[in-house]
Amino acid sequence: MDAQDQQEAILEMEAVQVEPPHLYRVLLLNDDYTPMDFVIHVLQRFFAMNKERATEIMLRIHREGQGLCGLFSRDVAATKVEQVVGFARQHQHPLACVMEKN
Ligand code: TYC
To answer: What is the whole-number distance in angstroms between the Cα of residue 65 and the centre of ligand 1?
Structure first.
């Protein structure tokens, strides 16, 4: 392999390494028991939404069964799910939060 081939091989490896990470959707699921105000609070607290946006997303979940809270790297998505589920259980609500590959 000459110097130019080596240089090209290095550039190729670097190109592979800067591939964007896969994103994961974090979703909230509807249920019959979690209070609407609690879901709005969760969307504001963990997904940095303002009250208006959080209310809109909560109502979409309530009507359609689920709703998108955001797109995150795998680690951040997993942490969001853990935090939301932990917070809901602390308050004795059955709220479900899941992640799925985008
Ligand atoms: N369906 C719930 C109610 O009527 C409200 C709700 C909305 C629950 C969104 C969960 O992810 C949810 N109190």
So the answer is: 9
**CA 65/CA 80 separation, integer angstroms:** 19
Which atom of ligand 1 is the closest one to the Cα of 28?
A: 11
Cβ(39) – ligand 1 distance below 6 Å: yes
Q: Residue for token digits 């800067």? A: 18
Q: Is 57 in the pocket of ligand 1 (CB under 6 A)?
A: no
User: In terms of Cα–Cα distance, which of 31, 65, 27, 29 is closest to 47?
Assistant: 27
What is the DSSP code (8-state) at residue 41? Answer: H
pTM: 0.85
Instruction: Give the model confidence (pLDDT) of 42-70 as tens digits.
Output: 999 999 999 999 999 999 999 999 999 99
Q: Which residue has the tokens 């979703």?
A: 27
Phi-psi region of 34 (alpha: psi -120 to 50; beta: other; left: phi over 0): beta
Q: Whole-angstrom Cα distance, residue 26 to residue 68? A: 6
